[in-house]
Amino acid sequence: MSKAFTYSIKNIRFDEDYHPADSTRLTTNFANLARGEQRQENLRKALTMMNNRFNALAHWDNPTADRYSIEVDIVSANLDIEGNGDTFPVIEMLKTTIVDHKDNKRIDGMIGNSFSSYVRDYDFSVVLLEHFDKNPQTPPPENFGDLHGKLFKHLLNSEAYQAKFDKQPVICLSVSTSKTYHRTTNCHPVLGVEYRQDEYSLTDEYFHKMGLTVRYFMPTGSVAPLAFYFAGDLLSDYTDLELISAISTMETFQKIYRPELYNANSAAAQVYQPSLKYQDYSLTQVEYDREERSQMAVKQGKFTEEQFIKPNQAILQEWAASYSGNIDAA
């Protein structure tokens, strides 16, 4: 069997002692928090926010709201294209583990949560910007996101992924500020009230090419819906605690990164138009450089073009043309 196009996966614990690896995208939420003089305090506060939110949602048999804590690992997938040992860090996600202090046991949480990809930086910050510069007010290129989508499906079908994880990932992101969301009467005991919109965002379409469907839910105690990207059935494939681990982890990052939406002082209305111009919100006590984050996306997109796309263009095109796999059950 060829060793070409194979993955290796490694875990790094995200805790108050976390330092970003050299291969980690610096725009990633967890990497941005772990920089500067306040890095350890930032990390400690973020983890406390996650634990508090988890216990608020997992409130049954939890009278003092301290039964659970969560551990977070950064899962990095490195791709070896030619089988020569040279790898490129294509995808990072987060894996949570739930610690039940009452029963003294550890429980698998969600795999996925955050989603980090150099190739996505290249697509959005190089390919898309160049396309709109030449063709303003036109849709993205028809093949936009095709390679990235196939790389993601290939990872989930790989021996490396399936040896470590027995479920498909759920990615939890912010809703799009370009769309309007409508509250429905559907309410899930953990995910909360469901919102829907009439037209998918560019991000929704991009994740669709990765084999993922999207639904939008606003959990109890939240002030804005989150976008959940998944393969399979979001409501039946995962336990309540797995869903809570995703909500508590990713809502924390969104409160820090997009407080206008997720730390607003009033909850989303029945018809909700997200806006970063909203002024009635509270800041967390966690320092986060949002301006630097947007600047780094372009730099990292160029890095990907120079270090991954251009040197391997012929191989990637040939592979993508022959690969049409769907996401298999792990």
Summarize the structure in words.
The chain has 330 residues and is of the alpha+beta class. The relative contact order is 0.16. It is 35% helix and 24% strand. The mean pLDDT is 89. Strand 8 (213-218) and strand 9 form a beta hairpin. The longest helix has 20 residues, at 290-309. It has one domain (6-320). A ten-stranded mixed beta sheet has the order 1-2-3-4-5-9-8-7-6-10, with helices on both faces. The chain is built from ten helices and ten strands. Helix 3 packs across helix 9 (290-309).
**What is the CA–CA distance across the termini?**
21 Å
Q: Please state the structural category.
A: alpha+beta
- Per the principal axes of the C-alpha atoms, what is the gross shape? globular
Number of DSSP strands? 10
Counted by DSSP, the helix tally is 10
Arrangement of strands in the largest sheet: 1-2-3-4-5-9-8-7-6-10
Q: What's the domain count?
A: 1
Biggest sheet statistics: 10 strands, mixed
Mean pLDDT: 89
* Share of helical residues: 25-40%
Taking Cα atoms only, what radius of gyration do you get, to the nearest Å? 20 Å
Order of helices and strands: EHHEEEHHHEEEHEEHHEHH
What amount of the residues lies in strands?
15-25%
Low-confidence stretches: none
Task: Spell out the key features of this protein.
35% helix; 330 residues; alpha+beta; 10 helices; 10-stranded mixed β-sheet
